[in-house]
Amino acid sequence: MPRALITGITGQDGRYLAELLTSKGYDVFGMVTGRDNPMIPRVCANAPSLEIVEGDLQDLGSLISLLDAVAPDEVYNLGAASSVGRSFAQPEITADVTAIGALRLLEALRVRDGGSGAVRLYQASSSEMFGTARVSPQDELTPFHPRSPYAVAKVFAHHTTVNYREAYGLHASAGIAFNHESPRRGIDFVTRKISIGVARVRLGLQQTIALGNLDAARDWGFSGDYVEAMWLMLQQPEPDDYVLATGETHTVRDFVEVAFAAAGIDDWERHVVHDPRLLRPSDVDVLVGDASKARERLGWKPRVSFPELVRMMVEADLEQEARHDS
Ligand code: GDR
Predict the structure, then answer these.
(1) How far, in Å, from the CA of 82 to the mean position of ligand 1?
(2) Are residues 195 and 281 in the same domain?
(3) Closest Cα to residue 305, out of 195, 222, 192?
(4) Which of 62, 275, 281, 288 could be joined to 210 by an S-S link, Cβ 3.0–4.6 Å?
(5) Which of 82, 87, 128, 182 is catalytic?
(6) Domain boundaries, position 197
(7) Is 128 one of the annotated active-site residues of the chain?
(8) Span from the CA of 189 to the centroid of ligand 1 (angstroms)
């Protein structure tokens, strides 16, 4: 059986990927930094054969020991300090986990693998790297102009992944994933904040949702679709970089409107208040990806549409909030 190690196992992508790999017959190991993480039972509930192991992207020695213990065929580096908003308040932690953490993992692989390419690595690169891109839609050749400490850290991790591939022959691929969401999305991110808020307004548990920039436009897909592309990338004989995107962009305002409509509420403006404290020192206005390369070379395309995604999230939160309230 092939063996896979996933960092960032408690995030939405980690959970969907663990389920996908388990269904394909892999032995899956999910890395956590400590066993007291309250998400662990929830993660294991959906993937009973998943083995939780300890390691830390902030500690090279722990990564080397973990690679020795697990002996994976594939490593998926989904671990990061992934909140763009919080990265402005915690730039140093963001750089250490997201940028240097990726470097440490690459170093651990280089030391262990010696450049044989026997272990395949997926690096979760981000559309945030494009920032104020002058080209639209963005593809693998679009220059980066990061707009947050998080995005700067992801640019470092991305270039380091490419460098280790070129310098040491590592089988290291990077997926430049545009925003992808799901009912498992953390509440720090705007889509989940909206879907929970809408559910609670619908159930009479709160009156309003406080939001920042409603004009930002993002290319939003479904996390469950994106993890398939991650796996496909590591099945290719040669490592490479791929944009993962739907090719459609919608504003935060669009998301709010469709989410309220999915809950049967048309006068959404009454329920949204603007909170300037939620504005970022510098934000990304609009992103939209061109995933032609992934479509042509991997045969990948996202299945869940924007309205389906919004509805899925609102329905899941309506169910969950109603349960909590009863
Ligand atoms: P993003 O996701 O920064 O695109 O990064 P997020 O959902 O945090 O923000 C999207 C846009 O919504 C605006 N916004 C708000 N955002 C949050 N979080 N909370 C609010 O209340 C709010 N109001 C408006 C933001 O300003 C922004 O413009 C996500 C993360 O998953 C990254 O880790 C990942 O790399 C990229 O997507 C691709």
Answers:
(1) 10
(2) yes
(3) 222
(4) 275
(5) 128
(6) 186-218+249-285+305-325
(7) yes
(8) 5
In a domain, 236, yes or no: yes
Question: 221: buried, middle or exposed (CB in 10 Å: 19+, 13-18, 0-12)?
Answer: buried
* Residue 48 is assigned to a structural domain of this protein: yes
Residue nearest atom 11 of ligand 1, based on CA coordinates: 216
What contacts 162, CB < 8 A, 6 or more positions away? Answer: 172, 174, 241
* Nearest atom (ligand 1) to Cα of 213: 24
Please give the model's pTM, rounded to 2 decimal places: 0.97
Based on the residue annotation, tell me whether 173 is a catalytic residue of this protein: no
Could you identify the atom of ligand 1 that is nearest to the CA of residue 212?
A: 23
Same domain, 22 and 85: yes
Distance 217 CA to ligand 1 centre (A): 10
Q: Residue 138 falls within a domain, yes or no?
A: yes
Q: How confident is the model over 183-220, as pLDDT tens digits?
A: 999 999 999 999 999 999 999 999 999 999 999 999 99
Q: What atom in ligand 1 is closest to the CA of residue 252? A: 12
Domain count of the fold of the chain: 2
